Amino acid sequence: MRKERSLHQQFNHAICECKAFGQKKHAASDKQKYERVYSFSRCEGTKNVGNRLMVFVKENYPKVKLVRDITSEHTTAWMKSLTWTSGDSFDEYRSRLSKVQELCEVTFGKCHHPGSWGTIDMEKPADLGKIRTAVMTREDFFAIRDSIMKTGRSNAWIAMEISSRVGIRVKGCHWLRGKDIDLQNWTVRVTKKGAKNGRARTIPIRPQDREFFRWLKERTPEDRIFRMKNGKVLKEDSINSTIRRHMEKLGLDKKYEDTTLHAVRKMYAGERMAELRGPVPLKDTKAEMKAFDILSAELGHGENRLDLYKVYVLGE
To answer: What is the pTM assigned to this prediction?
Structure first.
């Protein structure tokens, strides 16, 4: 007898069926635009909301076995259970819920209970200020990393180490190869594929991190770092999903809500800034921003980005 798919499996199957990466959205028909997800960022945002909804429904409505049985009552209950700091983020979640429903209906047929999952029976929350992405503490970093290492089933802990030492994103980790690590010049190269903006860059390896990158280079001299035992490359979302699972296991998921490896990246940014100019901001604004421009280049951003300085350094 065939085992029934879980809500998570049903949803992930639906989103895989509807991916259209590389295809031109503007050339698609209205029906194709409805049925597909064209960008990686849109896909990741939809997956994040969809998987969290499935967890909530599974825990609070155990009789619901099919995504087609989910209703706006369930989505409203989930939205009410979340903490909102911005009306804009509420609108974004509501939009993503509608997209989740669209993809599920394309794959499994119309829901048994008509109505949009994005129809939420609650007032839109007032803006409470810009959402701040949490900065991971060293204590939490070690706890999560060690928890992953103990299982021996995932090398997502290596991504945490890499990000904590050179500040690259999960995408950069995903595409990193052994040959991108230069032990003569002590640099790590982020290729165009691994860069969010499509611009390759080189990041210096600090003296205290050389032993780790020497070990990493010896472990994988040329090939992709995140290749599994069966030869397949570990997916980006698998890295973040593993980190998220261990956050939940340790009770840290609420502390780092909606962020995983990016919180490690911000930890690196804070520590690196302290190295460049000292533990506290400089009174000389020009000198302070000159130090930040060095960090900004390492993170893959441009110069004179006051908006990013406020986020990465001031935490605004």
So the answer is: 0.60
